[in-house]
Amino acid sequence: MKKEDYENYRKKLIELKEKIEGVFENLTRDHLKEQMRDSSGDLSGYSLHMADAGTDNFDREFAINIAGRENEILQAIDRTIEKIDNQTYGICEMCGQEITTKRLDAIPYAERCFTCESEIEKEQS
Predict the structure, then answer these.
(1) Lesser CB count within 10 Å: N end or C end of the chain?
(2) What DSSP string describes 58-90?
(3) Are residues 78 and 117 in the same domain?
């Protein structure tokens, strides 16, 4: 991989990281607002109907799950930027082969080649 390729991927990763951090901050802020309202006893933002309360809980859990996934991606991006710095970017962590540029263009923080990732997904299902 050429030096300019590393720089292009670094730029792409930093832009993606900033975008995800914005989403993460919004989810966290909104969830914290709900937690603060819950702890203060303020129920004005909540419906008293059980179905609405269930929907509120579902929405909260959904936001927490998304925030957790976004945090995992942020960590992967940080590891990938370190790989760029060490010039080990684009090498599969399992087999040591190069990850195709097609895959890196789609998922710039990919840590495994398509074949190895497919094997992991098969094992997990």
Answers:
(1) C
(2) HHHHHHHHHHHHHHHHHHHHHHHHHHHHHT-TT
(3) no
